[in-house]
Write a structure and sequence with these properties.
The structure holds two protein chains of two kinds.
Chain A (H helix, E strand, L loop, with lengths): L2 E13 L5 E13 L3 E5 L6 H7 L8 E10 L2 E2 L5 H7 L4 E4 L3 H4 L6 H5 L1 H5 L5 H14 L18 H13 L5 E5 L7 H18 L2 E6 L2 H7 L2 E6 L2 E7 H6 L4 H10 L19 E13 L5 E13 L4 E5 L6 H9 L6 E6 L2 E2 L9 H6 E4 L3 H4 L6 H13 L3 H14 L16 H14 L4 E5 L7 H18 L2 E6 L2 H7 L2 E6 L2 E7 L3 H4 L3 H8 L8 H4 L2 H4 L1 H5 L2
Chain B lengths: L1 H31 L5 H6 L5 H10 L6 H13 L13 H36 L4 H15 L2 H15 L14 H36 L2 H8 L4 H30 L2 H6 L5 H10 L3 H29 L1 H4 L2
Helix pairs in contact in B: 1-13, 5-6, 5-8, 5-10, 6-8, 7-8, 8-10, 9-10, 10-13, 12-13
Classes of the chains: A alpha/beta, B mainly alpha.
Protein name (chain B): ABC transporter permease
Subcellular location (chain B): Cell membrane
Family (chain B): Belongs to the binding-protein-dependent transport system permease family.
Chain lengths: 553, 318
């Protein structure tokens, strides 16, 4: 059988803001056979999305195809005119975007957007297109297939939107589907449903597809073949089974190693006596909206949560989006004053708001946010960012401060020369290290880490987690580690607290997480984490995962 | 959906009333601060102190300012704008004719400038970075920087003095036929359009460019939509909110801010009436004009907000 997609010697160049031209794709060859699903994996900046978009004859602003050919169904997209490309898009090659929530136009109904391809290319009467869309909604296991199209995008959940985006792509029966990280923005419990829907639809229709992802475990479930990219070049290519079990290239091995975190060992082996815990949270209730007569806010984000955390330990807080895990961190930090409940640090009760807390209390408890990009002032140098908390908490100035900044950079394994740079000049991993060093500058006892590795590539995130582990050992730090990613929690935490709809459903030692979870929701959550095993998704008990669709709303 | 909008409108109207009250207070006491004594000015320098005192009493000028403010406010609420100090005519009558003139000019200018501004703004956004886009930008910046009296004077010099195509004065009273109407309105409308459309063009361009950079616009492109469809069906509806707000701000200028244009073309509008009133210290007239400008401004903003809400399904049906 011939190839549906043939990319030969593709070169894509991009123009930087300073007007220089850089090559971002450096001679890539790629084949996709009929009915085959090929995954492109790699870290951000590896060019995987750029390659996928060339199948539609599209390059993002500033980029252009410099050389090579992209043949789809025998015709070269690169040589096509604008009008020919428009005819190709949506009809022969269809695209499923990374964030369906952003890719749906907020001011049109879902149905209008799903059938738009049929309308643009005048493929069928509108009524027929609508019926076909309803059929697709049904095939993708969407609730209320008859009426869901009448809603606006903000009225359905993220997981549903992602499947609706697939329906939008399938409406014209394209020959090739391009999936661009379609499950990255979803919770693990929802991800399963979406993956399963994609897989069954693709298999049923025998369509060829390109699946872009950075998540090897997800790709292992859905792809026949994997192409590993780095720096715009193909590093390794092979059948899924071979890449997952017997990777040849160093980079692929690093990816797979990052997936198997070293299990965390408790810092202190012998248990100290009945010491007062560093952090003790009792009956914490917090939320948004008007405060009712019973002292509870109108919308509760956190209901009656209690836990204790001993010195030198780390507690992982897991749950899906909306479970209240970030709210918990914000309430402890005093950013969202709790309505009810106490927070004690070293046995002393903390004020509800940051302004009610003493400077010393503030110093002892630091928070590190998810997005270093927004947490670091882009116009201040790394040195200035780090010296501010030093001066504020410890009054360190001048030469002494310089030396302390050097020491902090050294602690987070960054070169000293970096202190003269601005955050936008750093890589994602470096920025997150600076973000963490800023918290360390206060010499805290407790650090709240809110999803600090979620925005990072697997390999980079693994390095950050190693660093956290080392620093904990060296400095005796205590962490509260909020994450939706169970494997990161496994890598750094002693205990895990599972949150669901604002409540703590279970707390257990990390070592028991896989086997000893008792609450049905924790079981579901833990079972939903994709495994690096090609048969994992197919082998999952369907019934056990189906409440995930409910939970994902 | 309708209940929500009704509640929103009611809330906005409430806020409008409060702002009007604040403005009324500010306007009244600001005019109080104007130097000079009305009775003295009206009667002239030869007037006897008795006559001045008598006039002051009959005009309630001897009473405390706050009490007079309450009288005036009560009058406003019952539709009585008071009597002009200068010629003792009803303020309402004085304003009525002038307001009609001003509204007429504003209406014609809106009809003329809004479509042009929208077209230029949208097309500039569509061809961002092109020579056309640069030309539009340079044009709008220069129009914003050139004061309107300059534009108006130049227009008069060129079209009325040298070319003699158009009348230098715009008196709308003796209009015969459409051609005459166009000739009379041409210069003030062109001048005003220059002033109001520059800002509209820039805001439209910026709003459309913002939406053109979104993921849903890229999605539309990848569905094979034409540029025209992308802009008109996907980008524009989502850019409507900021665009109508920019328009409301620009258009509100057409009532209160056109004094220079009205003076140069000797056009009998409200702005000119108000400036004349200031020179004669005709307080009731000044106050009423100020209130009219304020009401029209608030109404325009309200309409803009309503359009923005109607265009956004997230706000429209919750």
């Amino acid at each position: 059988m011939g190839n549906v997609v043939e990319i030969r010697d593709l070169h894509v160049s991009a123009r930087t803001d300073s007007g220089r031209t850089v090559e971002i794709i450096k001679g890539v060859d790629l084949n996709v056979g009929a009915g085959e699903m090929v995954a492109l994996i790699g870290e951000s900046g590896s060019g995987k999305t750029t390659i996928a978009l060339t199948l539609l004859g599209h390059t993002r602003t500033g980029c252009s195809i410099r050389k090579g050919s992209v043949r789809v169904a025998g015709r070269d997209v690169v040589a096509m005119s604008g009008a020919e490309r428009r005819r190709l898009r949506g009809r022969q090659v269809a695209y499923v975007p990374q964030s369906a929530a952003a890719a749906f136009n907020p001011s049109q109904t879902i149905m209008d957007q799903v059938v738009e391809v049929a309308k643009i290319h005048q493929l069928m009467p509108m009524e027929e297109a609508r019926q076909k869309a309803i059929g697709l909604f049904r095939a993708l296991a969407l609730p209320d297939p008859e009426t869901i199209g009448l809603r606006y995008p903000h009225q359905v959940s993220g997981g549903q939107l992602q499947r609706l985006a697939a329906a939008m792509a399938l409406i014209a029966d394209p020959e090739v589907m391009v999936f661009d990280e379609p499950t990255t923005a979803l919770d693990v419990t929802t991800q399963i449903e979406v993956l399963r829907a994609f897989k069954s639809v693709m298999r049923e229709r025998g369509m060829a597809g390109v699946y872009v992802s950075h998540d090897l475990a997800v790709v292992a479930q859905i792809a026949d073949r994997i192409v590993v990219l780095k720096g715009g070049e193909v590093q390794e290519e092979g059948a899924t089974e071979q890449i997952v079990t017997a990777p040849k290239h160093g980079y692929t091995r690093a990816l797979i190693d990052a997936f198997h975190p070293r299990p965390h060992e408790a810092a202190a082996t012998e248990r100290p006596g009945p010491e007062t815990p560093v952090l003790e949270v009792t009956n914490l209730t917090a939320g948004y909206g008007a405060i009712g007569r019973d002292g509870r806010p109108e919308y509760l984000a956190l209901k009656d949560v209690s836990f204790r955390l001993e010195r030198g330990r780390s507690l992982g807080v897991i749950g899906e989006s909306g479970s209240g895990k970030s709210t918990l961190a914000r309430a402890i930090a005093g950013l969202l004053p709790p309505a009810i409940g106490q927070i004690r640090m070293d046995g002393v009760e903390l004020g509800r708001r940051t302004k009610d807390r003493s400077k010393e209390d503030l110093r002892k408890l630091q928070i590190v946010f998810q997005l270093a990009d927004t947490a670091l002032n882009p116009n201040r140098s790394v040195g200035a960012i780090l010296s501010r908390p030093l001066t504020f908490y410890h009054g360190t100035r001048g030469r002494e401060c310089e030396a302390e900044v050097d020491r902090l950079l050294d602690m987070v394994r960054l070169p000293k020369a970096l202190k003269h740079r601005l955050p936008p000049e750093l890589s994602g991993g470096q920025k997150q290290r600076v973000n963490f060093a800023r918290a360390l500058a206060a010499r805290p006892e407790l650090i709240l880490c809110d999803e600090i590795t979620s925005a990072l590539d697997t390999v980079v995130a693994a390095a950050i987690l190693d660093l956290l582990d080392e620093l904990q050992r060296e400095l005796g730090l205590t962490y509260v580690f909020v994450s939706h990613d169970l494997s990161t929690v496994e890598a750094v935490c002693d205990r895990v607290l599972v949150m669901y709809q604002g409540e703590k459903v279970e707390e257990m030692p990390t070592s028991r997480m896989k086997s000893g979870a008792e609450h049905p929701y924790s079981k579901l959550l833990i079972a939903s984490v994709p495994q690096l095993d090609t048969g994992w998704l197919d082998g999952l008990d369907r019934e056990r995962a189906s409440p995930g669709a409910e939970a994902g709303r | 959906m309708n209940a929500l909008i009704a509640r929103l409108v009611a809330k906005r109207l409430g806020i409008m009333l409060i702002s009007l009250l604040v403005v009324a207070f500010a306007v009244f006491f600001a005019t109080e601060l104007l130097p000079g004594d009305v009775a003295q000015i009206l009667l002239g320098q030869a007037a006897t102190p008795e006559a001045v005192a008598g006039l002051r009493k009959s005009m309630h000028l001897d009473q405390p300012a706050f009490l007079r403010f309450l009288y005036w406010l009560g009058g406003l609420l019952t539709g009585d704008l008071g009597r002009s100090y200068a010629n003792n005519r009803e303020v309402a009558d004085l304003i009525a004719g002038r307001l009609a003139n001003s509204l007429e000019l504003a209406f014609v200018t809106t009809l003329f400038s809004v479509p042009i501004a929208l077209t230029l703004g949208i097309t500039a956004a569509m061809f961002r970075g092109s020579t056309y886009d640069r030309l539009v930008l340079v044009f709008t910046v220069s129009v914003i920087s050139i004061p309107e009296f300059m534009v108006a004077t130049l227009a008069v010099m060129i079209f009325a003095v040298y070319l003699k195509w158009l009348p230098a004065l715009s008196v709308a009273s003796d209009v015969e036929g459409l051609g005459e109407l166009l000739r009379i309105y041409a210069m003030p409308v062109i001048t005003l359009s220059f002033v109001v459309s520059a800002q509209m063009i820039r805001m439209t361009r910026a709003a459309v460019i913002d939406t053109l950079d979104t993921a849903y616009v890229e999605m539309a492109l990848l569905k094979g939509a034409s540029r025209r469809r992308i802009v008109l069906r996907h980008a524009l509806p989502n850019a409507l909110g900021p665009i109508v707000n920019a328009m409301a701000l620009s258009l509100s200028y057409l009532l209160g801010g056109v004094i220079i244009v009205e003076t140069i073309f000797n056009y009998p509008g409200v702005a000119k009436l108000m400036v004349d009133a200031v020179s004669t210290r005709d307080l009731p007239l000044i106050q009423s004009c100020a209130m009219i400008f304020c009401v029209s401004y608030l109404l325009l903003i309200l309409i803009a907000d309503l359009v923005a809400i109607m265009a956004n399904p997230r706000l429209r049906n919750q």
